[in-house]
Amino acid sequence: MQIRTRDQHLFDAGPKRLLALDGGGVRGIFTLQYLKRLEALLRERLGNDPSFRLSHYFDLIGGTSTGSIIATGLALGWPVEKLETLYNALAEEVFQKSIWRQGILQAKFPRTPLMKVLLEQFEDRTLGSDDLQTGLMIMTKRLDTGSPWPLMNNPKGRYFDPASKKGKTIPNKNFLLREIVRASTAAPHYFNPERLKISSERNGTFLEGAFVDGGVSPHNNPALQLLMMATMEGFGLKWPVGADQLLLVSVGTGAQELRLSTKEIMDMSSAKVALQALSSLMNDCDAMNQTMLQWMSRSPTAWKIDREIGDLQGDVLGGKEMFSYLRYNVVLDREWLREHLQVDIKPSVVKGLQAMDNPKNMDSLARLGKVASRLQVHPEHFPRQFDI
Fold first, then answer.
1. pLDDT tens across 31-61, in order?
2. In this structure, are residues 323 and 243 in contact, taking their beta carbons and an 8 Å threshold?
3. Are 63 and 138 a contacting pair, CB within 8 Å?
4. 3-state secondary structure 310-352
5. What is the DSSP letter of 233?
6. Nearest Cα to 136, choosing from 126, 148, 121?
7. For the CA atoms of the chain, what is the radius of gyration?
8. Cα separation, 26 vs 215, whole angstroms
9. Beta carbons of 53 and 77 less than 8 angstroms apart
10. pLDDT tens digits for 201-219?
11. Model's pTM, two decimal places?
12. Contact 73, 86 (CB under 8 A)
């Protein structure tokens, strides 16, 4: 199989393929089951070449938080099996609970174990590294300015190599992969923010930014952000739109439906209400992203948004489908799992699987992901015009 370079993926003519990966902590192992199925189906489609990788098919891969770890590994040309092995080791090493760290006065987990793993895997590679075989976007958020930061290895991007801008701004291409992935995974309460040098000053000092998990932005599911980066003029790619021109595949880590009684809410402390509201806001962002993406696309996997607008199969913004869209995920709810996957799990067990920081859930999440991927991911979802 002929392996294309990053620039061929980004700038050669023809239909383009995007892969977006959600955040979700240890639930990333669930995402990997979808990717294993996807890798196997596409490998078979393309002649059963054992050297096939998802980086050969997708022209731009992006992730938030745990999804940024997976996205980076895929963009480096790793097989999904390698990432699954990494995840099992990473979960045990990073998410070690301590009675001294409760996530209140200090982060629940220390920085060092995660950085050790990221250093071992990504070494000193940068966002501009030639080892990245395809387009890569890592979603993070700069909390000191309140601005989402999607960092991408697009050489035509405004900040990739801003040498002409008096040399003060540090080029995005120089960011170490391990540091920006660590920034993308710095979920408040679980990990402390990550410092990144943003620009150099005349006196030899550096301006730094405080970065946190990209899930604190509207893009825990980074699919809409990827679509914008692929098509908006300001990002420099300007890929043509159309259901036969763009294929966007989005993979989740398991969604949660918030179901509480009025009494439960009214009896909560003010601090707990604030946390509940933040969690609800993140769900709202995910629902809005999903609504927008289905409203603009051709989607054989369309999800029911709510009882009023349904799955939007009869609605297309402007009457023209801008891209083809696939969304793979489950709802971590007993009734949903029974109805859609024919899997019956006790409510207490389902609730436990919602945790983002419990390594004991890895095997159960992997089993659930295998069932879901087998039932949801089908070869006919991938039109032949997107074959490479």
1. 999 999 999 999 999 889 999 999 999 999 9
2. yes
3. yes
4. ECCCCCCHHHCCCEEEEEECCECCHHHHHHHHCCCCCHHHHHH
5. G
6. 126
7. 20
8. 14
9. yes
10. 766 678 899 999 998 899 9
11. 0.94
12. yes
